[in-house]
Amino acid sequence: MDDGRASNEAGGGVEHAQALEELKLAGVGWATDQQRSLRVPLPDASHWLRVKFWGKKSLVAFRYGKDHHAVVGGFIVHVPDETVQGACSETLEKWAKPWIEVFEVDVAHDPPAAIEWRGKIVDVDSLVAQTATLGMRDQYAGVYAVYPAWPGACLVFGMAVPARGELARARAVRDRFATEVLPKLQLLTTIEPKESY
């Protein structure tokens, strides 16, 4: 587990490997966003800290340990009709494409998957991203789903794990989130939350 000290370049090593093992095996508990609009099951729930993302307001965001061994987050995208199959995913892809190009991220997608959520089929995208900028070169295992959550609004919820030399462990954590977290996400409101942070 994280030693609680501030991050110093967020290196890999034994501490990161131990944190990923904990995320693979720990029991699952619940966390909520500040507005109590969303309930999220998280492995080792007491060691996640609520945070804000730089550059994109989010409904909810957490990091695991001070060295950001993993991050989870959710934000809202708007669509004319959230009930149209693929509308939520297409809107997210249009939003994400310029960001992926600007930050020179190479993305390798796993085969497509889907989950049943509240009687609907939701697409799940598991991937490995490789950053290619001068300042940062690392791999990240990630997974996300785009939920038709509220009238005219979709919830994008996902997680990312920096590999730091532990890509197999990072993928295992990602895969646990795909099967144990994303299908169990709970909405606590019937209308879109008013605030993002």
Structural notes for this entry:
The chain is α+β, with helices and mostly antiparallel strands and 197 residues long. The chain has a single domain, classed as 3-Layer(aba) Sandwich (Protein Transport Mog1p, Chain A). The protein is 22% helix and 38% strand. The protein contains three helices and eleven strands; from the N terminus they run αβββββαβββββαβ. The strands form two sheets. Strands 3, 4, 5, 6, 7, 8, 9 and 10 form an eight-stranded antiparallel β-sheet that branches. Strands 1-2-11 form a three-stranded antiparallel β-sheet. Strand 9 and strand 10 form a beta hairpin. Helix 1 runs parallel beside helix 3. The two termini are 28 Å apart. The N terminus is likely disordered.
Layout of helices and strands:
Blueprint: H1 14-25, E1 28-32, E2 38-43, E3 48-50, E4 60-64, E5 70-78, H2 87-102, E6 105-109, E7 113-117, E8 120-131, E9 139-150, E10 153-162, H3 167-181, E11 186-187
Helix pairs in contact: 1-3
Summed up:
By secondary structure, the protein is α+β, with helices and mostly antiparallel strands. The chain has helices at residues 14-25, 87-102, 167-181, and strands at 28-32, 38-43, 48-50, 60-64, 70-78, 105-109, 113-117, 120-131, 139-150, 153-162, 186-187.
Number of helices: 3
Task: Name the CATH superfamily assignment.
Answer: Mog1/PsbP, alpha/beta/alpha sandwich
Radius of gyration: 16 Å
Strand content: 35-45%
Low-confidence stretches: 1-10
Helix content bin: 10-25%
Q: What structural class is derived from the secondary structure elements? A: alpha+beta
| CATH class descriptor | Alpha Beta
Shape: globular
Query: Could you say what the CATH architecture is?
Result: 3-Layer(aba) Sandwich
Could you say how many structural domains there are in total? 1
Roughly what is the average pLDDT, rounded to an integer? 88
Number of strands: 11
Task: Name the helix and strand elements from N-terminus to C-terminus, one letter apiece.
Answer: HEEEEEHEEEEEHE
CATH topology: Protein Transport Mog1p, Chain A
